[in-house]
Known about the structure:
There is one protein chain. The protein is of the alpha+beta class and 135 residues long. It has one domain (5-132). Helices cover 23% and strands 25% of the residues. It has helices at residues 27-37, 76-79, 87-90, 102-113, and strands spanning 16-21, 42-47, 50-56, 97-99, 116-120, 126-132. The strands form two sheets. The chain has a four-stranded antiparallel β-sheet. The chain has a two-stranded antiparallel ribbon with strand order 5-6. α1 packs antiparallel against α4 (102-113). The radius of gyration is 18 Å and the shape is elongated. The termini are far apart.
Amino acid sequence: MGSILCEHCAAACCRYIALPIDKPVKPRDYGDICWYLMHKDISVFVEEGDWYIQFQTTCKNLGPDNRCMIYEQRPEICREYEPGSCDYAGGGYGYDQLFTHPTQVEDYYEKKTGKKLRAVDRNGSPRRARVLKSS
């Protein structure tokens, strides 16, 4: 590997957007997260106790060589990105939790509360989240 990290970059940081969301509290909140995960290229993660929704989508300014085509005019959020926090160099993410499918949220809710959450019916269709009483 050369001395310039960007020469080997896969532009991982330019292939998603992550936005903070409210920490779920009620069954409906968890159901909403299940609904997010029913959409293509969406994940939800928890990092240092904060919840985020992540959209897998590539920046329109990313060139074929994985370099920014508007580097000198790039937005402030890109300018603030530190090479030390580079997704490529880090070798992975430090998620507390990563959810890519609604059933993972249902399992998480059950472990956390001891109650079952049904956000998806038996044929995979979304439904309003509700807590099921133990039989």
